[in-house]
Amino acid sequence: MNAPLMRLRGLIRKESLQILRDPSSIAIAFILPAVLLLLFGYGVSLDARHVGVGLVVDEPSSTAASFTSQFRHSPYFAPHDFATERSAEHALAGGQIDGFIWLQGDFARMLDAGRKPAIGLFVNGVDANNARLIENYVQQSWVRWVAQQAASTGIADPQPIDIEPRIWFNPAVSSRDYLVPGLIAVIMTLTGALLTALVIAREWERGTMEALMVTKVSMLEILAAKIVPYFLLGMGGMVVSVLIAVFLFSVPLLGSLVVLVLASSLFMLASLGMGLLISTIAKNQFVAGQIAIITTFLPAFILSGFIFDISSMPAIVQWITHIVAARYFVAILQTLFLAGTVWSVLLPNLLALLAMAIVFLGAARLTARKRLD
Amino acid sequence: MSAVARPIETAATPLILKSVTRRFRVGKRIVTALDSVSAETTHGLVTGLIGPDGAGKTTLMRLIAGLLRADEGTIQVFGADVDSNPLAVQGMLSYMPQRFGLYEDLTVQENLDLYADLQGVPPADRSARYAELLHMTGLKRFTARMAGRLSGGMKQKLGLACTLIRPPKLLLLDEPTVGVDPVSRRELWQLVDHLVRHSGMSVLLSTAYLDEAERCDAVLLLHEGQLIGAGQPDEFTRAMTGRSFLAHAANVSKRSLQAALVATQGVTDALIQGEAVRVVLEPGRAPSTIWSERFDHLDFAPTTPRFEDRFVDLLRSGMASRTPAPQTLSAAPSMAARSDSAIEVVHLTKRFGIFTAVDNVTFTVQKGEIFGLLGANGAGKSTTFRMLCGLLPATSGRLRVDGYDLRHAAATARGRLGYMAQKFSLYGDLSVIQNLRFFAAAYGLRGVRRNKRIAWALNEFELLSLADATSRDLPLGFKQRMALACALMHEPDVLFLDEPTSGVDPLARREFWLRINALAERGVTVLVTTHFMDEAEYCDRLVVMAQGRILATGTSEDLKHASRTADLPDPTMEDAFIALIEADAAKQPGLET
User: Fold this and answer.
1) Which end of chain A has fewer beta carbons closer than 10 Å to its terminal beta carbon, N or C?
2) Which pTM was predicted?
3) Is B68 in Cβ contact with A13 (below 8 Å)?
4) What is the ipTM score, two decimals?
5) Cβ separation A9–B91 shorter than 8 A
6) Residues 155 to 174 of B: which have CB under 8 A from any A CB?
7) Between chains, do B87 and A216 touch, taking CB under 8 Å as contact?
């Protein structure tokens, strides 16, 4: 065996042994993904369910009761009755309900007379996301109820409105189905960038790097020896995440597995490059961890489109998202899981990941010098 | 050695340094770590790179290993230039950094395998090499043990074994004996000697322990980045012939005598050694010319010069004579004044789970006494210390500090004591004056008293000109002074010093002990922990601890006397310490050391 290969083998073996013996790296690679997936899969849902709404009916009638009854039987709402608008407002301010519907004046008579009755909808706008959801649900309920009324009374709707919202790619509109694929990107950022940045910083802290550097080992060999085991570790975490997503949460995986593996590999390399780059700059674990979280983990959470829609961000922030590798990976994952192998979406994103992997790995190689100064 | 004049082929000279200069930026200042250092070493010898912390030893090692680049000058290793051909140089040398990079989560064998791979040792040669190294280091039984679970001494030996996996032509060892207990230190030296004699290797070894200089074949003395001397160690000591004495004076305590001698014309160095004061006179001075009306009868007995005598001589001649701290001469305190005990420790035990850190320890410290706790790392010194400071509750036993029982009045007792932590716990980002203000406030000083004490500290410790300097950038000796000033801010009756002078240069250390002596003369009780054997000489009495137990109590003279044998008629404190440890280990078979 020639000398460089022997050195590489020794380093990779050392790295693998360290991973196997260090419970924290195993935890970050396998247990954390599972915990995050379970947390997001079961705990966090962006769908409105059992939203507390108040119902204020000024003049009760059977028509009014018919309208309000659909809130009483909806899984989305938990209605409370209020005698006056004032008391409902009070409850809204106190946070007992998220909004209330006020059927003003003589609701039934106005409707019978074919005039538009006044329906007041008051929503707590502090949680904008929730507010918009309530607003949409109430509007849809109204439309549906008017249609039903028309059908049951046999009176044709003077202006038949057919609003039927169609939601593509996520027919169940389950937030879980698009959160879970995005989460995989976040998880892989953890192993790729955070773990890698930490383990190299640890070598600086413990003085092992100084000892390595005086041997004939080249910087390229040191970097390669870090990439190989952590690449495998990250891909292992990826497999665990996909299995949990598909089998536990029944998220559909419509796209090609080969493309999934390819995209994950490119993303993993970009993350590893970022981690290596951080560790050549920050030489202690605390600083490396801070930088890794701020430059990779948080952007993967916030700026990747995983939770917050990129197109609704301000232009400058949208521009910043282009340097977040997770952005491209989230787009690929959501496409592969929910839409299938759509090359027109996948290709630009794959190319972006490839470019980022090359840039970060290249930058890490250029900044890592075999000197202490 | 630069002293060698005969022409040598460059390729056969392990190391040639030519006006090597290296500067670092520290904050806004530029610090010159190495200032135009030129030297050569001879093949097949152990060359010692001697100097206190901050002298530039590690920087020089890293420059030679090609890990740093020199700002000026050239370095050649066996004829190869480090700057232009670092890989060729790294192929010829092995370097063991101060904290050698052992992978603590790998076993001894796995660490060896890794370095064998990195150094390109052919698989066929490995088993023989492993066997040789494991035998040499005594690690054969521990190949399956995790490196992190080895003792400090064994870790250093494993580090050495990894460094030697492919026998280098030049071996660089950066402070291999720091933090290693005296027994392991001795074994490490035997290993290095063996390597040089049997493998024909050249070794460059750095150390801050001056007594190790005498074990080297040649030494380079570094001080504040400058090479202040080079040659064979016995040349250095020979230069001191007729200048070293042990002085006694009737009616004067050893500390007062030392303080007076330091301030006397014609004296280069004076420090306490056992019951006498070791005095180094200026060249050409006879003891009879040392006179002061304050001594009734001064008795000088010639003694063998030590390497340290010459080092201090070199340092002193290089700078203007400094005025020592103001001292008052007083007679030896009478026994009556000493009858009060300041610290009482009776049957003290501390257990952490099933591990007994301190095991039935008993000792008493008199008022105004300097008392030492001597032991290797892990002997239980720090645990004892923490209990005495009231920071850790005792499992059983009785503890009294200045009359207060620490079980019931820990806070009151703490108010009476000053504590100087290892590594000097100062706020590096604050200036000197801000640190002093903070500690004054922390000790509850207010108003006039606070201002008075801060003024006193700046004045007494000569910190006035540095009041606005950032503490982090100060040299180690100044940090030590400042830490002592902070510990004395509230005029404590009892002073605790945890490893107070490790790494500090010999002059700063002398100055420090002069102050401590002056405090003791004024009745302050001082308790010191140390693993520096020569620091024990400054103590009135001391206990030697190992594995949580007290092995011996007495004056340093008592302890040295007890270990005297026919082979070793004049043992050092280290010899005495090793004898105690070995005698204890012999009593307890089956215990690994």
Assistant:
1) C
2) 0.74
3) no
4) 0.70
5) no
6) 162
7) yes
**Interval B2-43: pLDDT, tens:** 444 444 456 688 999 999 999 988 767 788 889 999 999 998
Q: Give just the sign of the alpha carbon dihedral B457, B463, B464, B466.
A: negative
Rounded Cα–Cα distance for residues B431 and B445 (Å): 19
If 0-12 CB within 10 Å is exposed, 13-18 middle and 19+ buried, where does residue B194 land? Answer: exposed
Distance from CA of A284 to the nearest CA of B (A): 15
Q: Measuring CA to CA, which residue among A360, A357, A192 is closest to residue A280?
A: A360
Residue A352: partners with Cβ closer than 8 Å, 6 or more residues away? A328
B102 touches chain A (CB under 8 A): yes
Taking only the tens place, the pLDDT of each residue in B296-320 is: 677 888 888 888 888 888 888 765 4
Q: What is the rounded distance in angstroms from the CA atom of residue B324 to the CA atom of residue B508?
A: 11
Other C-beta atoms closer than 10 Å to the C-beta of B192 total 21
> What whole-number percentage of chain B has pLDDT above 90?
18
**Contact criterion met (CB below 8 Å) for B429 and B472:** yes
How far are the Cα atoms of A60, B279, B313, B502 from residue B288, in angstroms, in the given order? 122, 13, 20, 36
CA angle B59, B60, B62 (to 5 degrees): 65
DSSP letter (8 states) at residue B473:
G
Closest CA to B432 of B376, B477, B391, B472: B472
- Contact predicate A243/A184, CB 8 Å: no
Using a CB–CB cutoff of 8 Å, tell me whether A217 touches chain B: yes
- Answer for the pair B295, B249: CB distance below 8 angstroms, yes or no: yes
In whole angstroms, what separates CA A323 from the centre of its chain?
A: 17
Contact predicate B426/B435, CB 8 Å: yes
Q: DSSP letters of B495-556?
A: EEEESTTTT--HHHHHHHHHHHHHHHHTT-EEEEEES-GGGGGG-SEEEEEETTEEEEEE-H
What is the rounded CA–CA span in Å between residue B142 and residue B146? 8
- CB neighbours of residue A168 within 10 Å: 7
Coil, strand or helix at B270:
strand
Identify which of B97, B120, B123 has the shortest CB distance to residue A210: B97
- C-alpha atoms less than 13 angstroms from C-alpha of A217 in its C-beta half-sphere: 29
Q: How many CB atoms lie within 10 A of CB B253?
A: 17
Rg (CA), chain B: 25
Residues facing residue B498 across a β-bridge: B529
Query: How many cross-chain Cβ pairs, A to B, lie less than 8 Å apart?
Result: 89
Spatial contact of A223 and A200, defined as CB atoms under 8 Å apart: no
Q: How far is CA B323 from CA B441, B514, B582, in A?
A: 31, 12, 44
Strand pairing of B218-223 and B226-231? antiparallel
Phi first, then psi, for residue B230 (nearest 5°) are -150, 140
Q: Alpha-carbon torsion B467, B470, B471, B475, what sign?
A: negative
Q: pLDDT tens, B223-238?
A: 888 898 898 988 888 8
Per-residue buried b or exposed e for A241-251, using 16+ beta carbons within 10 Å of the residue's own CB? bbebbeeebeb
Using the Cβ of A213 and the Cβ atoms of chain B, whether some distance falls under 8 Å is answered with yes
Q: Could you tell me the two tokens for B191? A: 């290993």
Q: pLDDT tens digit string along B382-429?
A: 888 888 888 888 899 988 888 888 777 777 777 888 888 777 777 888
